[in-house]
Amino acid sequence: MMPTPTMSRALIQWVLAVVLLGCSGLAGVAAQSLPNFTELVKTNSPAVVNISTTQAMQTRQSGVPNIPGMPDFEELPEDHPFRDFMERFGNEGPSEPRQFDTRSLGSGFIISEDGYILTNNHVVEEASEIVVRLNDRRQLTAELVGADERTDLALLKVAANDLPTVEIGESSALEVGEWVLAIGSPFGFEYSVTAGIVSAKGRSLPTENYVPFLQTDVAINPGNSGGPLFNLEGEVIGVNSHIYSRSGGFQGISFAIPIELAIEVADQLRDGGEVSRAWLGVVIQDVTRDLAESFGMDRPEGALVAQVLPDSPAAAAGLEPGDVIIEFDDRAVPTSGALPPIVGRAPVGSTVDVVVMRDGERERIAVRLEQLPDDAAGTAQQTPAPSAGEFEALGMRLEPLTAERREALGLSADIEGVVVSNVTGGPAAEAGLSAGDLITRINRSSVASVEAFRDVVEQIDSGRSVPLLVQREDNQRFLALRIP
Question: For residues 82, 88, 89 and 90, what is the CA-based torsion angle, rounded to 10 degrees?
Fold first, then answer.
């Protein structure tokens, strides 16, 4: 039987109805799979606090406020537009310094019933007064128990008892992609809640070497700093600390300090007022693919030792520039950024095994760790002056490190090497060398003269990449030089 137009329309309507029912069912399933944060927020909000601080500041002699980041009025060029603006609309002529108060806002959370509160150091740094506002609208003056700049953590104490507290979780148990939630006071809007997922773990930031940050996409803004980051079980697994932003506001990337590290720091601050941290005494860098090849490694991994600081635990144990640390105290070191947090949390005075790749072979070295000093730069030792000679090949020109060049480059007497006076291209340019660089080692051999550099190069097979240890200004790093 042939279908009539009426039957065709009925069939189409039936199919559409089935499809729509299926879609609504899928939408219902998706909606049911999304987390509900309402109970988590109700339970934990009472233990989250708003922190306001007062800081004393002074105006400059010109009457211009001494605000961090603002240029010094007295040092501005005569034709600078800001100087012209202040001369027109600011105070005219010099004036006596005047003190005034500024206020800042942040967040924190209560970790003990007797009033200990954890927050960021930058929230309370240089504060003359710290006021904590509780969920029940009580306002209490807080005492700064201690702070640690290297982890950006601070511990406060208020005079109160039977306070609500958060439950501490384990950030190490988190998986990338898990839901997390933040409670804080962005821009002063108290008890604001934002949610997102864990984007990455173990992130290393340039200014915070001792913290393996949790990266999330939870919306964090000024005022959220120091607030808690929760998992779906309502446990704190991080302290919100930083955002990555070109505008100053949230742009989709935020960072939190793992709670295990935060609690360790808080315990030390409570017990002694300061944090004890272990020290290895090396300057490290990442291992690139070319460097891995030059060191005879199968793949890039570990932390490449670019410099061993004098009088350090690493120096005493026999670690050398060019060693690649792949394990520390039985823990894998996948990248250079993973090493400082592992070292920092190790017990001071303990002896640990450090596994390095040296000349393509694994070597285990015992290192006795010491307390991290305030100044870990060490002291310089006198070394013989290099001999004369020149080298012009591989797309660069090398010259000896004379006393005049040493003084011009600001190099200490313990440093020896050869100076890159010109780079014209070729392997030198591909390696990233620049005029003014000082080459101190090639292929694990020290370079005391241009002749020594030439001798090593002549013994290297064509087509190989070899590591160069290069000092540029105050930094040392390895570059991979391919011998044509």
Answer: 70
Is the CATH number of domain 278-371 2.40.40.20?
no
Mean pLDDT of 15-24: 53
**CA pair distance 310, 315, nearest whole angstrom:** 6
Q: Do 257 and 226 meet the contact criterion of CB atoms below 8 Å apart?
A: no
Among 215, 264, 272, CA closest to 111: 264
Which token pair is 349?
């005075």
Q: What is the pLDDT of residues 354-363, one digit of tens each?
A: 999 998 899 9
Active site residues: 122, 152, 225
Calpha distance 55→222 (Å, rounded): 17
- Do 376 and 339 touch, CB atoms closer than 8 A? no
H or E segment at 403? helix 403-409
Residue ranges covered by each domain of the chain: 48-84+97-157, 167-272, 278-371, 391-482
Tens digit of each residue's pLDDT (9 = 90 or more) over 232-267: 999 999 999 988 876 667 888 999 999 999 999 999
Q: Would you say the CATH fold of 278-371 matches that of 167-272?
A: no
- Helix ranges, 273-355 (H): 289-294, 313-317, 339-344
pLDDT > 90? residue 268: yes
**Cα dist. 228→66, 341, 359 in Å?**
32, 21, 46
Place of tokens 């400082």: 340
Angstrom distance (rounded) from CA 52 to CA 132: 7
How many C-beta atoms surround the C-beta of residue 34 within 10 A?
A: 9
pLDDT of residue 378: 35
Q: How many CB atoms lie within 10 A of CB 374?
A: 4
Residues contacting 122, CB < 8 A, separation 6+: 152, 225
Fold of 391-482: Pdz3 Domain (2.30.42)
pTM beyond 0.90: the answer is no
Residue-wise pLDDT for 141-198, tens only, equals 999 999 999 999 999 999 999 999 999 999 999 999 999 999 999 988 999 999 999 9
480: burial class by Cβ within 10 Å (0-12, 13-18, 19+)?
buried
* Domain 48-84+97-157: assigned CATH number: 2.40.10.10
Which DSSP letter does residue 347 get?
P
Query: Which of 1.10.10.10, 3.40.50.2000, 2.40.10.10, 3.40.50.2300 is the CATH number of 167-272?
Result: 2.40.10.10
Give the Cα separation of 224 and 105 in Å (integer).
Answer: 9
